[in-house]
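Co-fold these.
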Amino acid sequence: MINHDPGSSPPLLSVNKLRVSFRVGSGINLPVIDTADFILEPQGSLGLVGESGSGKTMLCRTLIGTLARHGAVINGGNITFSGQPITNLGESEWRKLRGHQIGYIPQSSMAGLNPILTIKSQLSEVVKHSTGGSESEVRREVLGLLERVRIPRPTAVMRSRPHQLSGGMRQRVIIAAAIAQGPKLLIADEPTTALDVTVQSEILALINELREELGMALLLVSHDLAVIEEMCSLMAVMYAGATVEVGPTENLISSPNHPYTRALNTSRTDKARPGDLLESIPGDAVSVGHWPNGCRFWPRCPIADLDCQDGLQPDLLAIEQRASACIHSDRMEVTD
Amino acid sequence: MQGIIKQVGSFFQHSLVSRVLQAVLVSFFLLTIVFFLLRLIPGDPAMVLLGENASMGQVEEYRKLLGLDRPPMEQYVDYMSNAFQGDLGVSILRRQSVVKIIASRLPVSLWLAGSTVAMVFVLALPLGLLAAVYHRTWFGYFFRVTTSIAISTPIYFTSLVILLLLAVKLDLVPIAGYDPEFPKNLRTLFAPALTNSILLAPVLARILQASVIDTMEEEFVEAAIVRGVKPLRFMWHYLLRPSLAPCIAALGYFAATVVSYGVLIEIIFNLPGVGMSLIEFVRAFDYTAVQGFVALTGLLVVATTLLADLLNAWLDPRANLK
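Predicted complex below.
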């Protein structure tokens, strides 16, 4: 595990050897995260990358305390937020944390807003907590929120319902709701997946501006390395429920220490030259419940040998600022 | 020109006027089908009314009197042109205007249907919502088992159990009969409505449960939880309202079921409604009365569909009815 510098203030978020499973029957658990490790400093930014099914979304749900309603539980490790343990919080304690301390931007701009309520009605839910005030006060607050996320014609948008807005506008409203209570940490689960490229960069720019303005830390989930590279100084790569490599984004991209990180990097479409064959990772991503023994990536790994196929998923091994779970990371240079 | 045709088309699809036209059309087709089907059944009202001892001549004469000797097509045109002027003819059995019979019988059936639907919703909404929220716990299991039992129990058995419990053992409601006065009639309707609800509420609750479970998976619900939306507001605006559409759509099915179960229930609980007299009229080959009752059912089903659409428009502003 990466060591936190003991001299500085406590990290904002620290996830230690976290294990999460679905409860499928009485006493039967199906692991989805095993194990996740990373640290996020106040006002820092960390990108979570991985294929679908690698546990990224479940990790977000762990951090917003909604595992139970998806039939999952934490069964190992610990999480601290601002120095406080939040691994076993009850619902009422989560209620104090959510929104005020941790903001959340859901995956799709399409389904992220309630289709039957007006924008004003949905945003007033968040401002009422702070103002508790009159109709005109709530209205002014909501208008202020919409202006903050740079929505043109906010008075008209306020009266509309989600289906009357474009995807980008909807995502701006969702962001407005997430930052309304001034959280210290913003969790964004693939916030731009459903948007087209120009809108995507606008939304990312908005998130960056708001981060600076409010001093928020950002946990950004994406399967798009280009997005992570642009937005996050740190990066954690997940494969089959485990963080397999963690460290500064530029280092991980320029000299990956785990074959999976390298494979993700070489299969990027934005770096490919016209006419080149696109590289892809051989085989399929392993799904929950079908993880192999040993390092879970070995069936698809170009440098795997017999040592990789036995025992448990290897732990992250820290080297300076970064950590990799590959037992053969020293061979990475050679095989390039 | 095409624009005009398009406008006229959308007008017919959406406007209230088109609903009324639709009701007229449905009733027209229903009446046509029933008119000829009834006449295909062997036997006729003259034979039933005169009894077994009547001679062929007497039966023929009676047929002539009722106008049944004329060619069916002629009778049909006659009947339809009267029907569209609001005259549904005279009951052969009762020698009374069909419209008057319906008018005297309909309120009982409407009260029964109304109280049934109200009771079904009052039972099914909280049950379905709870069953969805707690579907992973023992309550979800209990809900599945009990609703299966309730749905598969025959109505004559359920009604007897309810009568035995509520009327005989506890003496809370009258065992049979109807009081036409408004607040008092609810007491006489309680047991029949409950019987019907025990069969229908589980169906609705299950539809709602499945729908709410789907809604709970939506991103906006997750986001609302993180925002910390107040519990009551969350239950109504985030779980129930977005999940009600399939339940409202089921109202159409319910309208038909409430009517058909209503026939049995009116007999069991001795309620002087439409259903009870319908059986009597069918047995007697009372062509005009049966036709009138069937046209009424058609109108009721169309009216319920309209009601469902209006409800949907209120619940989900995207489905707008002009």
